[in-house]
Design a protein that fits this description.
alpha+beta, Beta-lactamase, 4-stranded antiparallel β-sheet, homodimer, 439 residues, 15 helices, 7-stranded antiparallel β-sheet
Amino acid sequence: MSLLTVPRRCALAGALLLGAALPAAAGPALDAAASDPVALGWMQGFPPPDDKLIGQPDANYFSFPKLRWTVCHFRELLPTKRVSRGLGAPRPLPYALDAGIDALRFTPLGGGAPMSWADALAANYTDGILVLHKGRVVYERYAGCLDEAGVHGAMSVTKSLTGLLAEILVAEGRLDEQAQVASLIPELAASAFGNATVQQVMEMTTGIAYSEDYSDPNAEVWAYSAAASPLPKPADYRGPRTYYQYLATVRPEGRHGEAFAYKTVNTDVLGWIVARTTGQSLTDLLSARIWSRIGAEQDAYYTVDSIGTPFAGGGLSAGLRDLARVGQLILDGGMLDGERLFPAAAVERIRAGGDRAAFARAGYRQILGGSYRGMWWVFHNPHGAFAARGVHGQTIYIDPRAEMVVVRFASHPQAANAANDPTSLPAYQALAEYLLGKP
Amino acid sequence: MSLLTVPRRCALAGALLLGAALPAAAGPALDAAASDPVALGWMQGFPPPDDKLIGQPDANYFSFPKLRWTVCHFRELLPTKRVSRGLGAPRPLPYALDAGIDALRFTPLGGGAPMSWADALAANYTDGILVLHKGRVVYERYAGCLDEAGVHGAMSVTKSLTGLLAEILVAEGRLDEQAQVASLIPELAASAFGNATVQQVMEMTTGIAYSEDYSDPNAEVWAYSAAASPLPKPADYRGPRTYYQYLATVRPEGRHGEAFAYKTVNTDVLGWIVARTTGQSLTDLLSARIWSRIGAEQDAYYTVDSIGTPFAGGGLSAGLRDLARVGQLILDGGMLDGERLFPAAAVERIRAGGDRAAFARAGYRQILGGSYRGMWWVFHNPHGAFAARGVHGQTIYIDPRAEMVVVRFASHPQAANAANDPTSLPAYQALAEYLLGKP
């Protein structure tokens, strides 16, 4: 199925859920200050002026600079499903703010003049960043559409939470990672996923005919996006209507297990496996296992398809501090206040990483020597760092050696993290080295 | 504009937001146990079976018995806007449960055999009910789709919160209830609302050509509903696209101030006035003035139109305990833990009631001698009771003499409260008399 057969309105609505990099206007993008969504006045007033509206008649709500507003407001545009924090009191985060961090200097990847940590935030269109060192908040900043009481789209950071839940089930013996997908989800037997193992799905080494190249009108992502849209479909629409229906149509291409290829549909398959295995939706399971256990300050939520399936590959919106709580729990191997929330093996498996040779074939220049395991990016650097990463600059970056967790929400004009990695990955490394040895 | 010119898909999507009583299947409705949404298996499984799906392809999601699931899940079907509880710890509700309440007996309105309080709950398809006496929880039950950690559509109870916010602004001198609407919202100058006063809007005594009779295909509610829908409109749609645009089209009929007529559009005008007056959306204002101040356990939310306007006339979903906190705050005239959250005059004005002669002309047989003020129903009974009321059985019922607050969520097959009033209003009165004189 190509764009030619998918009503464009449907396809766009879904594509935007994926954080698609829609064609940008010509010329350099506005910088962070000039594109600030509050300063630009999006959606202010009752009603907002026509040229400041971002809403459902406007299928372009994820184009820059509008996306700088949209990343904090997905639920106002789309149906969503809650991840409940429960009803208890939030668990306060201890603070030990370090005023020296802003002046920290580092050299961007690929060379260029050294820059300060503070300058990098604007360069990366950071909407919120929080750093935990030894479990204490040493740095916290908000900008753009976000504040401490708001939530922000986590984009593909979502994948890593899906992966964590799956790794927990594997570690608990409830999910066999060597099982073939068809044995768990018979509906996928005839698809490319049917004879892949759970592990190949979790490492994204499945051999599938699926392109996320938005510049190609024949890319499968358009049909996927149309299927994923929760909005009513046109009367003449004949394609798949849900994530699950779309996944069953994915055809094989190449062999499973040979090369890492970052394709969101793998995560949606994994989300399906997790839901079928536990009998709980991803949102309910994430609440039960994590969100209601960490003293979260805010409910999180997922965008959903037309039958309420949470978007396992990118649907999460959450508060920055709560994402930091999740990161700390992972750094601590599942322990919180002396209580074990999940087996340490779940994180150990992620930290050990995936198939590095398979990963190398994908050619990620910013993550040379890395791997992908349980839907986490593993750097295999001397600090043992690993990360959840989402388009436009979202991350949970965990540095075990420095006992550091960085969580960042951002709204970079370019979707691909290759655009912000040069001024963020070395900044995290410099901060880790700065924090090493501090009490 | 009639149904003939409004695409039916759009109209239905919006109409369902209003809690429209769509034509029911022939024969008596399933009882509460037989229509239990969990027992019926709606939306269970990954994916749910086709005959258990309730989603966007199905424009009938607010028909009985599906509505018994939908009332807890509006956000999964529609875009919504949050009412933040803030980030603090919830304020615990004190408990003093009274096991004697279930056996309390009363005689239904209109006669019939006496029935027990407990039996009335099932008869009324109650999803959750909580009673505060002197600020302590003496009764709490959940059923159907609801539990203590869930939220439920408040339907037109929403109106009373819009009205409370407006009464607060009046009491604070920020809103002149004698002002003409056109002086506050110039966009409404040419509409029927233009030369009405704010008070006439707040008492729903405006003279407007607007019918909410869903059995009439020419009723204005269909065009209103199409305008209100947040879903993308068909390419050939030419009508108003937002609440605000629709309100500007309402034509006059009759004279302002003569008769009470329960028409939701009045509340949407009031919501517009409140937002324009304060510079805050209803959701943000409700959070700032109430939700973040009462120690709420959960965020609430509103459904929105295509430009994010919260549905002032019926869009709220909230937790039962939080609605009880709101009711207690109102009973206490704006005081909480020794702090004044809003002027006592705001509640005094509501309790004093509206124009009883104007109200009588509407012929509400269950509320003879009553009135409507600040979007609250005032019974003018010996206990001074007043209530927020929403279709299918939602209520905040406040009895000042008995120092009692009853909050109830329900999913009665019939929308009109005339269907559940006979077995609920006398139950509340019996409970009030039972509680009178208790410590």
